[in-house]
Specification:
about 300 residues; mainly beta; Porin; 14-stranded antiparallel barrel; 1 helix; about 50% strand; globular
Amino acid sequence: MDPKFTPMKNRNSIYIIAALTLLISFKSNGQQDPSYSMFMYNGTSINPAIAGSAGSLSGTALYRDQWIGVNGAPITQFLNVDLPVYHDKVGLGIVVYNDKIGVTRNQNIETQYAYRLKFEKGILAMGIQVGLNHFNADYASVITNSQNTIDNTFSDVTNSISLNVGTGLFYYTEKFSVGFSIPKLINKSRDGLNHSDNYRKYYMTASYTIDLSADWIFKPSTLLRIGEGMPFQIDINSNFWFRKKYGIGVSYRSNDSISGLFQLKVGHDFTVGYAYDYTISRLSQFVNGSNELMIRITIPTSNDVINQRTF
């Protein structure tokens, strides 16, 4: 017997392939949106009403490498730019991401518009987004045997482009925020059958900033995901900032992972962040966690209205 292919390793390989197959099926059928550990820094990825709420021209780039060491595991690149305009009454934004898992790839672009109403203690923003999603599944590239011969079961290449429309609400003060959004309102099937490949999902967020002392700031936040084709999931995050420059925190995602988060502000306008996810689900025996890198640039444009603090 080949020593590189022992029964134990064979069994583990089968488990990994089975898990990835289920996940690929889940993502391609359920059109699962990417998940981020540092969701508090790229809220426009799930809620268009957040566009422009930082009171600055903001840009965030994020790279996520999920399940380190597993071939075909999810890899995501994300970029957003947003800013307030028209005397801060309107927020504009654009979101682009590329999400690849196995032989499937989702590429998404959204344009966002948010209108803000100012109240005595806070601001209510109402947002809408319109965009396009390109889905590609190259099943013909799946290797099913050691001879690398064609398996007719995996001979299809799927390409589709669909319209996205989403909406959201976001209420915030300088220290508190709460949001609700439906990033994709349209249920759309790619194959014309009586089921949807693009399930509607609902997101809720909340955060609060507490000034512990002249040097320390504590900012807990949470994110809830609810929808057809996906299990209920909650993220709970606790983040501490020292002198508004050094950030450290821990995050829990239900039935999935525990994360350590680190941020560093360089000057007033540049932030870099890193998150490491330790897997606590059944996949923990096969994977080595996940890496997430973030770069954020903010250029203040106005001090005339309440701005949502980003630390």
